[in-house]
Amino acid sequence: MTARVSQIELPGMNRLQVAVELLAAAGIEQRGAVFTRREVVEFVLDLAGYTTAATLHKKRLLEPSFGEGAFLLVAVERLIDSYKSHAPKHAEPVADLRDSIRAIELHHRSFNETRLKLRNLLRGKEISNAATEKLLDAWLIQGDYLLTDLPFQFTNIIGNPPYVRQEMIPAVLLAEYRHRFDTLYDRADLYIPFIEKSLNLLEPKGSVGFICSDRWMKNRYGGPLREMVSKDFHLQYYVDMVDTDAFHSEVSAYPAITVISLETSAATRIAHRPQIDKDTLVKLAHDMRTKSVKPNSVVHEVSGIMRGSEPWVLESFDQLAVLRRLEMSFPTLEEAGCKVGIGVATGADKVYVGEYEELDVEKDRKLPLVMTKDIRAGKVEWHGKGVINPFDDEGGLVNLKKYPKLAAYLNRHKAVICNRNVAKRNSERWYRTIDRITPSITQTPKLLIPDIKGEANIVYEEGKYYPHHNLYYITSGTWDLNALQAVLLSDITRMFITTYSTKMRGGYLRFQAQYLRRIRIPHWKDVPAEIRVQLKAAAKKRDIKECTAVTMELYKLSREERAILSLNNDEGVNNAA
What interhelical angle do 481-489 and 544-555 show, nearest 10? Predict the structure, then answer.
């Protein structure tokens, strides 16, 4: 899409305006449009207090990306019904209601179709033709929410912001977004600045009620937004919607409903994965908003969720106290002398990765490569792949004149290699891999950990292979890696990862570096000799229960802590979580 911006010229428009117009005419996938079920819409509005029992014409509601009108139509229905119940004696619908709604949509066709639906709705509510058109003119704005100036603050902001990855956004538009929004950090998706702008548009005690991906609550890119919320806002309600039928189509995101208000932070009401039907959601909204949480309710009330930019822990609260104790008592993995790394990303595996023996380059310009499929059996079973290494031992690129076979090989594939972003950014270093290759890692003993996995699969590699980019690895100059393998195979490590990792469908966890670095372990010098022997023996057998039992002793868990973590006998953290 970025290339198309530079190729298209529209009369009287600059490149930024052209980029906006491209998105305004884009398809559903490019716009990140997902349509919410009516029962869920009603639930979000109920949680936000936007109900017909309130004098809604005295509130100001914003829908920042109304699409086909899932939220907006229900909100307007409620507004008109409330107005008819609470209208002043001498009602003047246009004067009374013109500032009650603002709704924005970028996509031209969705804007026009939803305007027609609203016209029919208002006429059905006996609003005159003239008043209907004046209200729609005041309420509806066609444009980019992130670039639109609005005339006032709002009591309620609701909706389902678009889920658009940065790669789908024209470069000129992405640069403008980054200039405007501090939370558009790292690989953040478009819904992140939507939340930031919405929070900044709230009146005191106003609230933002969104259903969108929950990734920002734990991921690296959500750090600035979490910090913003923790400073000035209150996370009132959180409802985990993963594996529910919240939308009219299946989505790859992991949704949650959050209601965040501009007021002093207090306890958060939490619920998980409700059944999607009207009666269940009406009752849940009532239970979430009631004065006090009833015993045995599906609603939990938790304090202390927000801690600056730290990930939010929104489940397993009894385990959280144990985890916090471990965090207070032990150093992090890296503080204890271990290093977490990730394998090489080349940007063009079809060129740089191949059968080791068939890669036609000098022998010292290729390394045996270990991949995820090589460790599925719980040990390394190398399938013979290799990776081309364009770096010398000092970290610089090798001189191709000294390596004629490497030069010939790379030049044969130069078109593919130079098409990568890393090559475009620096044409003189066109043949580098995305990640620098450090050959000494090949000969270094290491633990290999797949990025995404369900069952424990921490594998010891004695120092023969270089890791591929889907593998994280841990090295250490202090800890015995066989003993560390037992700790990482244990259910206690799974508790750390479960607490901080984003959810994956099918019960899988992401063992990314940012989560691995949160694991706490004692210094090796502080591990008793008997525990050292037991850890290594448990790892050798790959017995998860035994690894867990010995790791409990390592952490000196009390009987109460073991009970909380459900680590007694046949139960494990992975069952409790």
Answer: 100
